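The instructor's notes for this session suggest beginning with a concrete chain rather than abstract definitions. Hand out the sequence below and ask the class to guess, before any prediction is shown, which regions might be ordered.
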Amino acid sequence: MAFLSRCTLVLMCCALVGRACAFTITASPFVLVSSRQHGNTALPLRSQRRSAGHISCNLQLPGEGCTSRRAVLLGSPAAAVAAAAALNVACPPQVADAANKIPVWSLDSGAKMPTLALNTAGLSVDGTERALRLALSSGITHVDFHPGIERDGVARVIRSTGRSGLFLTTKIRKAAPGTAPAAAADKARLQIEEDLRVLGVESVDMLMLRDSPDCDVMQAQWAVLEQALKAGNTRSIGVVNFCESALRCLLETATTRPALNYIMLHVGMGPDAHGLRSFASERGIRTFAYGALGEPGPSTELLSNPTLQRIASAHKRSPEEVAVRWALQSGVAVSVRASAEFGPEGSVCEEGPRCVSGVRMRAQLFDWGLEDVEMRELDAVSSPDSIPTPFASAGCLPRP
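After discussion, reveal the predicted structure:
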């Protein structure tokens, strides 16, 4: 069996941990990484260093990744093949994107989702267009945008460069309190039609539903998303800021479970986001994280944390880079702003070096990695803490 310099070998390894899981290995030569289970819950999720002479190996649970550890150094491709044969495993939930080294999740629907996305939240039409063009030129093909002006900026790019190669993620507007379920469903249906028309596409790749204090509203709107999936108007569906009670509500009537839950995760919260990640993963729902630098703006406390700064210095990286890399290496997909120029008033991507360097830095996040001991140190940081669903409906809180 021949190996290319950037080949991907996926190994299914249920026997190692007594439950469904998988390895994704990018080889040149090889380091075989074994799993490690934390207590009764297989918690997050380490990507190993992606550098010459090493491989990346992500252990994948049903629904998302989980912690991996470097165990055995194998000196040749033949040794790696022998190890694979000994495990007698297959079935990849994740493959590597050869074009830009950004890992890709294979969702239940068959959609291939790049695990690093450009987050356009708060950008103007011009800012969204500029940020997306920079992202595409840097190898980031997944764009996470809101309906309205951000969508209009994305539409400009599609009109000039085409739809091919883009992974489009957008969200249904939250229904106003007191909206009847049937009316909320109609609003969702009309928005989908409007978004597709403005974007000039037949479908998006991920359509996500915001929560509501009314369970009936969430169930009614989710049924519309399921219809859109069947009609080919979206390739996958997920949820935004759903706490445990919201997920329970949705799953009572859902015929298609959410592919992912879009929540906040940053250093200081712990890798399991107060139990919400494992709660979702047990139900086959992956985590797509925003807020790696804090929300609604970059957290000074987070970026000045001594542990974060020391690790950043050791890698000759910025605290900002380490904060985002920690989230990625914890096994979630991550949506990142174009730069650290964002806050409650909005985001900025202007002409000039700041946005350019910010996007390029984010595109290089898979060129290096944190050591296991560094991940453990960052996992243990307990401040600043946040709830993972800060923009959820009132009363929707995760378990303590």
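Then share the key points. Confidence is low (pLDDT under 50) at residues 1-99. The two ends are 50 Å apart (CA to CA).
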